[in-house]
Specification:
The chain has about 180 residues and is an alpha/beta fold. The chain has helices at about 10-20, 40-55, 70-80, 110-120, 125-130, 135-145, 155-165, and strands at about 1-5, 30-35, 60-70, 85, 90-95, 150. Strands 1, 2, 3, 4, 5 and 6 form a 6-stranded mixed β-sheet that branches. The radius of gyration is 19 Å and the shape is globular.
Length: about 180
């Protein structure tokens, strides 16, 4: 089965993936093509969880094409799916996650920029990111400065090689010994 996760990650894109995954038969191949400008953190985390669960019973392959930015980058690198492919000319961008708020006048919220500054300073996602991809010293510096880090295809491939070493599921070998009583 083939599915394309394209565009901004929202509850609607999560619902679309859920619908498609529910059609899967056990052990059926599932090919997910992703591209997009990022989106909401919550639905992206749910998508990662779904892909990890589906990969327990199905052969899942995630393909990156064109560009993966923010949440799409996280889905690709954070999922524990073993088969990951970066197609030619794909590029990506990572940055610190942020929240978008819809503020209602008189609700007593802090101004959005002040809230974001506090949120970014309190939420340290760098250790988790470094466990998924190997960042250069310059990329770490830029990430800490809350800058966007753009990576070209060759760099994405380097990140994927590191990622495969860090996220591959260990295989468990069970040894049975037969005795004359069996």
């Amino acid at each position: 089965m083939y599915y394309r996760l394209d565009g901004r990650i929202t509850d609607d894109s999560l619902d679309g993936l859920i619908s498609r995954v529910q059609e899967l038969q056990p052990f059926e191949d599932f090919h997910l093509y992703i591209r997009g400008e990022g989106g909401e953190v919550g639905p992206a985390e749910a998508i990662i969880s779904i892909l990890d669960n589906v990969s327990n019973t199905n052969n899942v392959t995630i393909y990156v094409y064109d560009f993966v930015i923010s949440s799409h980058f996280q889905i690709f690198f954070k999922s524990r799916v073993q088969n990951k492919v970066i197609l030619a000319n794909a590029h990506g961008m990572i940055h610190k996650e942020s929240w978008e708020l819809s503020l209602v006048e008189g609700a007593g919220f802090k101004p959005h920029h002040k809230f974001m500054k506090e949120y970014i300073s309190l939420r340290d996602t760098l250790p988790e990111l470094k466990s998924l991809v190997k960042l250069t010293p310059d990329e770490i510096k830029r990430y800490k400065a809350n800058e966007d880090i753009w990576v070209l295809n060759e760099r994405l491939v380097e990140m994927l090689e590191y990622n495969k070493k860090k996220t591959l599921k260990p295989y468990i070998t069970i040894k049975f010994e037969l005795s004359e009583n069996n």
